Amino acid sequence: MKALLIVYHSMTGGTLQMAHAAAAGARVEPGVAVSLLRAAEARAEDVLGADGYVFATPENLAGMSGMMKDFFDRTYYAAFERINGRAYVTLICAGSDGRNAAQQIDRIAAGWRLKPIADPYIVCTHAQTPEEILRPKSIDAACLAHCEELGRTLASGLALGIF
Question: What is the pLDDT of residues 41-55, one digit of tens each?
């Protein structure tokens, strides 16, 4: 059986909804075990034990969240040169544009020599005031359906040996 690791951080619920949708899509594939872990809880052993990854983060101050950065800081060297060629997807819940957060994750994944199976998926909430930024988020159904499809695609590719 293949293993898919979904690592996420969420402060206002938007990224959590996206990660749950990806997990729901991936769980449709019977040949893949799906682990959904908060960035603070994910360890190098989880990274090494997975065949593919979903990295989900909010955009914080024009970058990935500090907790996602912490996850990568704690796991990077333990997995370096040991997970080459594995597939991944990036999900971003952004307030403005999310491109820098996606770029940061793509650079880390390139160092791990991972293969993206799709462009980073960025959902922009357009939250620009402190009140809007801190308010709980609700991601619309079409965006969640896309996250679900990305999870299903990654899991299916893992099960079929495509990724």
Answer: 999 999 999 999 999
